[in-house]
Write a structure and sequence with these properties.
This protein has helices spanning 61-68, 99-107, 127-130, 152-160, 164-169, 234-240, 269-275, 281-284, 304-311, and strands at 20-23, 34-36, 43-48, 79-84, 89-93, 119-121, 146-150, 173-177, 184-186, 190-196, 207-213, 216-221, 243-247, 287-290, 315-316, 321-324. Helix content is 19%, strand content 23%. Strand 11 and strand 12 (216-221) form a beta hairpin. Strands 2-1-16-3-4-5-6-7-8 form a nine-stranded mixed beta sheet. It has one domain (35-324): 4-Layer Sandwich (Metallo-beta-lactamase, Chain A), CATH 3.60.15. Mean pLDDT is 90; it is low at 1-34. It is globular. The protein is an alpha/beta fold.
Length: 325
């Protein structure tokens, strides 16, 4: 990862006022404190926590059956909505296959200046992170000039490959260029900085985002290869920021029967907890696992593995969760 000189990554009117969400400070799966979203300061809402294919995943009849029986609930793909109620703007982080449902969620607690979003920030070109853009296009919403923030290869991919290039040609979207470790300034002194991380980059770079509001920092890394392949120490990232949402695709090795998991090099949840075990209780409490594969038991709030994450001092991100700054 290239860290620009200005990077701090390594340095020591709401629509429905009664719409309630889980507050970020819950300490266990059972400790749900309901709160109204802020009306006078920016806040961030988790619109989904599942890996690209969501839960239930296609073809998984048992997962559909569990939902039908009320034993599990649908989980939307990882996406965040950053809302600034003062300037009446909102920003989406990753446009997922669940774009329709997640836009409906966002419409219940916020109103943008430019519908559907005042900006969409993309991490990379894997199916769970950009394909929701199709809903903006000619065959669907027919939106106009929605800013889409993308890295150079991601920008080129969208502009030169159909059907995404039609979004550009029809001016449904206007691509705004991102650069590694270079900050984008938004209203209300909100800052968003992309930073590259190692991952399967068949079609684009992969980035995480550092979101800064009111002097507080959130780091969002939904996809990354093993931690040791990154030239940044994730332990230091945790120490130097306020909230850390990190890739928890799989719980442990052997989780996918019949597949060589070395060819899917995400950090296992168990590996991340082992790596971060010596952090202070305060620092551990900053870590939220997200981007959770349908096979990972921590996606089930009733599982012993979900409880174990909290018992070890970490947290699991929850859909509808609010982070305030």
């Amino acid at each position: 990862m290239r860290i620009a000189p200005t990077s701090t990554l390594k340095r020591k009117e709401p629509v429905l006022a009664l719409f309630l969400f889980l507050v970020f400070s819950c300490n266990s799966p059972q400790e749900y404190h309901r709160t109204k979203h802020p009306v006078d300061q920016p806040y961030l809402v988790v619109l989904g926590v599942a890996q690209d294919a969501g839960y239930p995943q296609a073809g998984q009849r048992d997962e559909f059956r569990l939902i039908e029986e009320g034993k599990r609930k649908k989980q939307h793909t990882v996406s965040l909505c950053l809302v600034d109620p003062v300037s009446k703007k909102r920003y989406l982080f990753d446009a997922t296959p669940d774009f329709r449902e997640q836009l409906e969620m966002a419409d219940k607690f916020s109103t943008p200046t430019l519908y559907p979003y005042d900006g969409i920030f993309l991490t990379h070109a894997h199916i769970g992170h950009y394909t929701g853009l199709m809903h903006i296009g000619f065959e669907a919403m027919g939106a106009s000039a929605v800013p889409v923030y993308a890295m150079p290869r991601m920008k080129n991919f969208l502009g030169t490959n159909g059907p995404w290039s039609q979004l550009v040609n029809f001016k449904n979207i206007v691509i705004q260029s991102l650069q590694d470790s270079t900050t984008v300034e938004l209203p209300s002194s909100i800052k968003v900085m992309p930073f590259t991380v190692p991952h399967r980059d068949e079609y684009s770079e992969t980035v995480g985002f550092k979101i800064t509001v009111n002097g507080k920092h959130m780091v969002f890394i939904p996809d990354i290869d093993k931690w040791e392949t990154w030239d940044v120490d994730i332990r230091e990232v945790v120490k130097e920021n306020d909230y850390i949402l990190i890739d928890a695709s799989f719980y442990k090795d052997g989780e996918l029967p019949g597949r060589d998991m070395s060819k899917i090099p995400h950090p296992f949840t168990t590996e991340s907890m082992e790596l971060l075990k010596d952090l202070s209780p305060n620092d551990k409490g900053k870590v939220y696992f997200i981007h959770i594969n349908h096979s990972n038991p921590i996606l089930d709030e009733k599982s012993k593995e979900h409880r174990e994450v909290f018992d070890l001092g970490f947290k699991v991100a929850l859909e509808g969760q609010i982070f305030t700054f």
